[in-house]
Amino acid sequence: MRTDNGRPVPLAWSLVIPLKPLALAKSRLVEPLPVQGTAPLRPTLALAFAQDTVAAVAACPAVRDVVVVTDDELAARELAALGARIVRDEPGTGLNGALAHGEQAIRADRPRAAIAALNADLPALRPAELTAVLDHAAQFPRAFLADAAGIGTTLLAAAPGTELAPAFGGASRARHTASGAVELALAGVDSVRQDVDTWEDLRTAHRLGLGPRSAEMFRRSAGSPA
User: Fold this and answer.
1) Does residue 225 sit within a domain?
2) Contact present, 177 and 157 (Cβ < 8 Å)
């Protein structure tokens, strides 16, 4: 964290959010999801998750800007309308390649930017909880937050002058620890931990409080409570 005359000054973070083409997203969200006509509901849910995630990030006072790395044209339009800068996934080498590409896009303009990578599937995300995580992460060169399952990662942060070096996917908690990143031990930030891969994850996020777009899609789905 920077200081101004001995007083801490919170960092202003740039967040990178990767999003695969919606038709390929959330493949584990299967039954009991219904279909709308002949189109699966899953891509619409994936977009709603991303919209609620980006909207919460944009409302976070610790965030300076947000970059979404995606090749999906619909998602690009919808997320740009929420204030995100869209960067095409030119490497096309998967999740970590997309994150590194987003990091490069930010630091091409601001080499000393503080950067955090964040999942696109945090539909219950709360700006205040994200602020708490980022403020804590500012104490370390690299830091990460484990997901609710304790296996993966939902956020990885790199201070100015430090490479992000993302290792997301699968058992990324262990890989980020092995890479030297500090695991953030914080209570009360469940909304930043609760990503959604399965229907049970979505039910848990619903209990935390979904953003408006995801809540509407949940209501219309077969899993919604009466």
Assistant:
1) no
2) no
